[in-house]
């Protein structure tokens, strides 16, 4: 059974989310244990790290979803947080909260492996798709199979980029462009 928290203040949105989960449960045969909270404070107050997924509305009275996500991340690094909003300007901001945790991506056939500080996540996709989506957030290819978050590069050792506790190979073909992007990023040429 998958335990899900939904933090949403509008009943119509709660009903929609619950209907989607019910339909998915019937279709896939997966059981959900859903708990609804009317705002961020209700969710964060006495929060226990026992949810698998949290669906957070960004705009709620009292504590908003972004603040709730930050507080939850202080005690629960593993829960999957998905922002739900009908306001486009918040979608990118919510995406940034998640991508800041990614150290680098590794491509293995049609699987993308996301390397975070203390875990990895996998999904189907291609390096080209990920490069297009994450390039504007300073993810740069250092070789054909790796896309590195420049914010987590702490140094270069020979033909390796030091990313967190890992060493990621830099290919000869990508070295010049990778080093130029890293120099610009470190030198403040990029808007962080």
Structural features, described:
- With about 190 residues, the chain is of the alpha/beta class.
- The chain has six helices and twelve strands.
- The chain has helices at about 10-30, 40-45, 65-75, 90-100, 125-135, 170-185, and strands at about 1-5, 30-35, 55, 80-85, 100-110, 110-115, 120-125, 140-145, 145-150, 155, 160-165, 165-170.
- The strands form three sheets. Strands 7-6-5-9-8 form a five-stranded antiparallel β-sheet. A four-stranded parallel β-sheet has the order 2-1-3-4, with helices on both faces. A three-stranded antiparallel β-sheet has the order 10-11-12, with no helix packed on it.
- A hairpin with a 2-residue loop joins strand 8 (about 140-145) and strand 9.
- It is elongated.
């Amino acid at each position: 059974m998958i335990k899900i928290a939904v933090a949403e203040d509008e009943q119509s949105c709660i009903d929609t989310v619950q209907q989607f989960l019910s339909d998915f449960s019937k279709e896939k045969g997966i059981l959900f244990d859903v708990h609804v909270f009317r705002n961020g404070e209700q969710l964060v107050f006495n929060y226990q790290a026992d949810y698998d997924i949290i669906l957070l509305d960004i705009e709620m009275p009292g504590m908003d979803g972004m603040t709730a996500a930050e507080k939850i991340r202080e005690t629960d690094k593993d829960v999957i947080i998905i922002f739900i909003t009908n306001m486009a300007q918040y979608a990118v901001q919510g995406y940034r909260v998640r991508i800041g945790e990614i150290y680098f991506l590794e491509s293995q056939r049609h699987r993308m492996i996301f390397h975070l500080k203390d875990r990895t996540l996998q999904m189907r996709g291609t390096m080209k798709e990920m490069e297009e989506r994450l390039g504007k957030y300073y993810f740069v290819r250092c070789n054909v199979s790796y896309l590195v978050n420049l914010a987590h590069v702490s140094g270069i050792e020979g033909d390796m980029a030091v990313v967190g506790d890992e060493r990621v190979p830099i290919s000869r073909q990508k070295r010049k462009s990778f080093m130029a992007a890293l120099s610009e990023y470190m030198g403040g040429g990029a808007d962080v």
